[in-house]
Amino acid sequence: MDCTLPAVAEELLKEIKKAFQETSHGADTFFFRLKFIFGPSAVPALDLVDQRSVTRVTSPSGRTAYQVLGSSGKLYTCYSSCHFCTCPAFDFTVVQKSESLLCKHILAVYLSLAMGACQELSVSEEQLTSILLAGEEDEG
C-alpha cells in the first residue's frame, strides 16, 4: 500500500488482504477491529465494497486514481498514495476536525483492494486528466 496510515490500521488491512487471498472469507471476522480503528466509517465503507462501488482508474503511464460511487449517487475521486478523497466529509471530519482517519470512500478503496473487489477501468492520459480535474472542480 502506498499510503502511510497508523501501523495498527496498516496491519489490519494486511491481515484482511491475507485472509481474502487464502480463504476468500468476508470481512465479518474483522468487523469489530475495523469499527474500533476506523469508527463510524467502517460500516458504510463495507456497504460500498459490497455494492462494488470502487473503480481503479489507470492510464497507460501507470497513473492511478480511484472513483467511488457514494451512497448518494455522487462519484468521488480518491487517491490511495496520500489517502485523500474529494468528498465533503473527508475535508470536514478528517482534515478540519481530525475526528477520523479516513472517510468511508477512501476506506472502501483500501478494503476493496484488500478483498480483491475493485472494478478496473483503463483510460487514456487525457481521460484520466479530465477525471482528476473534475475532482478539483467539485472541491472549489
TrEMBL record:
GO terms for biological process: double-strand break repair via homologous recombination. Keywords: Metal-binding, Zinc, Zinc-finger. It comes from the Eukaryota. One of its GO terms (molecular function) is zinc ion binding. Residues 76-114 form the SWIM-type domain. GO terms for cellular component: Shu complex. This is ZSWM7 protein. It comes from Lophotis ruficrista. The lineage of its organism: Eukaryota, Metazoa, Chordata, Craniata, Vertebrata.
